[in-house]
Amino acid sequence: MTAPTPFAVSAQRPTPREQPPVTSPRPLGRLLPRIRPYLWRLTVAFVCLVASASIALAFPQIVRHLLDAAFIDTDAGLLNKIALGLLGLFAIQAVLNFVQVYFLTSTSELVIAQLREDLFAHLVRLSPGFFTERRTGELTSRLSADTTVLQTVLSYNLSEFARQTLFLIGGIALLIFTDSRLTATTLAVVPLVVGAAVVFGRALRKASTGVQDRIAEATGTADEAFSQIRTVQSYTAEAEEVRRYGAHLHQVIDAAIRRAKIRGTFFGILTFCGFGGVVAVLWQGGRQVLAGNLTAGALVSFLLYALYVAGAVGSLASLFGAYQEAVGAARRVFDLLETVSSVKDPARPLRLPRPLRGEIVMDNVTFNYNPALPEVLQGVSLRIGAGEVVALVGPSGAGKTTVASLLPRFWDVASGRITFDGIDIRDLSLSELRGAIGIVPQEPTLFSGTIRENIAYAAIGADGSRPSEESIHAAAKAAHAVEFIERLPKGFDTLVGERGVKLSGGQRQRIAIARVFLKNPALVILDEATSSLDTESERLVEEAMEDLLRQRSTLIIAHRLSTVLRADRLVVIDRGVIVEEGSHQDLLASEGVYSRLYRGQFRPGDALVG
């Protein structure tokens, strides 16, 4: 058996894990920095809101004079002037309301759109380890449902809070001005409403968070079923998926019903307190009118102010409940936004020397996906020289794919180090490192655009620039993909469908190889790119790969031993440890792990073809 090449033990440095953020006690406060650039728009909206609320507060006083003019002074001319004045005020109020709603709504759209973009940009930069612990549907729900709740806060709840606060303060002041004796009766219900808001608001926040969580779980189940629709239908498991989704929906319904009970009880108490206060004011005020201490116009204006105050208290209590819902949504959104990735750029990244050589050295690397589980790799040391083709073979679960995932830093090593052209990959920016590596996976996933867009995806610049048409065609030709692309009705403009379902496995593989040609990396990782193809597709893909591997360093993850003959050197890994290295013939003669794997795949007398 040929022993692995020894390496010196390198200095250890701790590897960060995905860290949850420290939860802020005021999650909605984290929106303020995003609102600040639009402060002038909010100022204009607030001025219009104050003016509109002032007109509304003046309305009962005008009604008072209107009624007194009609029933006491019997002055028709004054009555006409007051009516026309009211129409003019309402016209002004309509314009003010339009400006206020326009600025608030447009501002909320801008703020939430930027929040969604920032959240998405943050999520796509988190390490794959984060996504192994989160369901895609849950994250999608956070991007849509939770941010929609925050948008409602900015576009409606914020203005309503300001309006109802003005109504409450102004209404109380004008109540006292109109008749201080009735004011105490009107305000007697306020402590009851405030107490109910505090008690029910907390319960409503908890219930609303439960509803949003159940919706996220249901969305995750649906997303999983859609993404695996062929598996679902091949096992005729449609009914089971419907049952699972229905079970989640029942949980949504149960949580929503609990929330509805709390909300219904809350609003029932508000309604009773509000109208009970109106009845008390009507009774006491009517007695004063009968006694001649109050005019009918004054009583009506007082009732209108009482309704303003009662409505303001009820609305503020309702808004407090909406605020509690928004707090939960904001916490979930900003917790995601502030999650610290376990794989991130160094503070002062180094640059790779040019020209790139593609030399990889793994030095005593240890790794595990979870500290509570056994190590997947144990002291692995491996070198891929510049332009060398190395095949990594071993039984299933030996750690082959893990090695391939560590090179582009999808995960970081627990100990040891990996260098690219002599530089520790943790000292390189992720864009610098990953830009030098091309990966052809076993099951390439395409996006649901055209063939041209899928190939061009490999060379989109940070500024959004696209590669030239000539370079796209050259990459497709080098990957032996032009042959089938030109036979398609729309050629390069053919839509491939979600995940490339409209193309065969061999066609998807050649598109994936065309991407790598266009990227032109120094290191290529082939994760058994032909294992699931038919003979003809495999031949075409093999030809494309032969061209791809020329003058490039290559790591072949070989699940099927018929693909290893193109390698300059074979490395055998078993249970996270490199146990053999050498050529095919040498390892076959050593009667070790490789020999056992080979004899398990091929009967005596079979030819090993690459």
**CATH evolutionary superfamily of the largest domain:** ABC transporter type 1, transmembrane domain
In spatial order, strands of the major sheet run 6-7-8-3-9-10
Q: Could you name the CATH class of the largest domain?
A: Mainly Alpha
Q: Considering DSSP H and I runs of 4 or more, what fraction of the residues is helical?
A: 55-70%
Structure characterization notes:
The chain is α/β, with parallel strands linked by helices and 610 residues long. It folds into 2 domains: 28-337, ABC transporter transmembrane region fold (Up-down Bundle); 360-601, P-loop containing nucleotide triphosphate hydrolases (Rossmann fold), CATH 3.40.50. Helices cover 59% and strands 9% of the residues. It is built from 19 helices and 10 strands. It has helices at 32-35, 39-73, 76-123, 128-131, 136-178, 180-187, 190-227, 229-234, 238-290, 296-337, 400-406, 430-435, 451-456, 469-478, 482-485, 505-519, 535-548, 584-589, 593-601, and strands at residues 360-367, 377-384, 389-393, 415-420, 423-424, 437-440, 523-527, 553-558, 569-574, 577-582. It has a 6-stranded mixed beta sheet with strand order 6-7-8-3-9-10. The longest helix has 53 residues, at 238-290. The chain is elongated, with a radius of gyration of 35 Å. The relative contact order is 0.10. Residues 1-16 and 604-610 have low confidence and may be disordered.
